[in-house]
Amino acid sequence: MTSLAFNLPSAIVTILNKIVRSRLYGTAVLQRANCVLLAYQKYSFVEISSRVGLSAKAVGRWVRRFSESLDALQYVQSKGVKAALLRQVVDCLRDAPRSGRPKKFLPSQVASIISIACEAPEASDRPVTSWTIEELVDESVKREIVPSVSASQVQRFLSNVQLQPHKNKGWCFTTEKDQALFQLQADEVCKTYLDAPRLLFEQNIRTVCIDEMTSLQANEKRAPGKRPAPGQCGKEECQYTRHGTVCLTGNWDVVEGRFLLPTIEETRNNKDFARHVERLIKTVLASGWVFVVDNLNTHCGEPLVRMIAKALGISSRKLGQAGKHGILKNMASRRAFLSDHSHKIRFVYIPKHSSWLNQIEAVFGMIKRRVMRGGSFTSKQDLMNKLTRFTTYFNDRIAKPMKWTYTGRPTEKESVEQPKTWRQMWPFRKMSTAMCKQDGT
Q1: 84 located within any domain
Q2: pLDDT at 432
Q3: Is the pLDDT of residue 407 over 90?
Q4: What is the mean pLDDT of residues 429-437?
């Protein structure tokens, strides 16, 4: 075969041209990228050979390899991540994987070292809570797993399995005893998000997530910070003066993806929350409302029930008396009233210890990182003003609807297997070749 004509997507052609003009990838990769581009331009292997300085056989080999990888490259391109596509294209132009020198450590030895890193150090009679690489080396030799091993080699073992024994991440173990109830509530929250666009466009019913950021401290740095400079990180004064705390109650429109009418006050109680919801209902036009909230007491308090009943045209006489009878009797009866699907204003309560199901938590995380972290506030009013300015800026520049894909069930594996490049298939080809030689075929 003296030529191989094939079509390349424009995105891959752009990346190949970028590689040819770059000095980052080495001569071999540049030559192979040139081979693919020239083959795409319908040059023969002999003509390409004279242009790039490779034999016609080598040119044909690399053009065929790249052609075999096109399905995998187009799959990566469909994901929309340009950096990932660049990495995959460069990978297709690199040398085939080498077997390397014989392994010094047996698989059982490597597995044993990794298993030590997964154990608690206290089990090895060490008065620490996390392993260091030096301690893992010492423990491996002490248990006679290996006669000796370097710290860098142990580090490579851990990196290969993405194990970082020195890192921990906080988490909360749910105390929900009724798993059926937990699943039912999670399903309802997910269904609420998925149904939100239909409810808005067909019935003008808005779906809004509500929650509070409490105890936001108005701390004033005693000296101004210094901005980062080339070769230097920024510097922040560690001493501060306290000016009190405020509470931010926010509303997140699930469909439109924007922050609605936040309330920033010094207090947070049943009456404050009821006033907050009432202001939203009266200010933003809608035929109905669905509010996603957590299980805080203020989210099903007596003032809220009375306000919602008034908005629904329900007589206060039907509410009963708090602590005695009727809808106001206790939290369970109040929550049942607020969750009634027949009402045009209703509340959906997320399961306990599942704040991640509330979309507004992602917005609060951004407020914490972009406003509170490193901020200096001369007073509570100064903090309130900066929070108000950020919410406006957030709506104008950053806010967008969240793409909710979780349905309350574990995510299933993609049914379509991702195509593989020639380098990813290389181990299987080598194995197939060895088996053919063994069979004499």
Answers
A1: yes
A2: 55
A3: no
A4: 55
Predicted confidence (pLDDT) at residue 435 exceeds the cutoff of 70: no
Task: Give the helix, strand, coil percentages of the chain, each rounded to 5.
Answer: 50, 15, 35
Show the tokens assigned to 106. Answer: 């047996």
Work out the burial of residue 109: count CB atoms within 10 Å of its CB; fewer than 13 is exposed, 13-18 middle, 19 or more buried: middle
Count of domains in the chain?
3
Question: Is there a single domain that holds both residue 247 and residue 357?
Answer: yes
The percent of residues in the chain predicted with pLDDT above 90, rounded, is: 55
pLDDT in tens, 295-316: 899 999 999 999 999 999 998 8
Q: Give the chain's mean pLDDT.
A: 87
Return contacts of 434-439, CB within 8 angstroms, 24+ apart: none
Query: Residue 208 and residue 405: Cα distance in Å, rounded?
Result: 17
Q: What are phi and psi of 260, to 5 degrees?
A: -110, 125
Per-residue pLDDT at 334: 92
Q: CA 58, 59, 62, 65: dihedral to nearest 10 degrees?
A: -100
Coil vs helix vs strand at 207: strand
In whole angstroms, what separates CA 287 from the centre of its chain? Answer: 34
Tell me the whole-structure pTM to 2 decimals.
0.63
Q: Which residue, 68, 114, 171, 150, is CA-closest to 429?
A: 68
In terms of domains, do 156 and 184 share one?
A: no
Secondary structure (DSSP) of 64-118 = HHHHHTHHHHHHHHHTT-HHHHHHHHHHHTSPPPP--SPPSS-HHHHHHHHHHHH
For residue 208 the two structure tokens come to: 């809004």
- Which among 348, 340, 34 is positioned nearest to 195, based on CA atoms? 348
Mean pLDDT of the 85-96 span: 91
* Tokens matching residue 88: 């995959």
Q: Is residue 165 part of a domain?
A: no
Query: Does pLDDT of 439 surpass 60?
Result: no
Alpha helices, H only, 313-421: 331-338, 360-367, 380-393
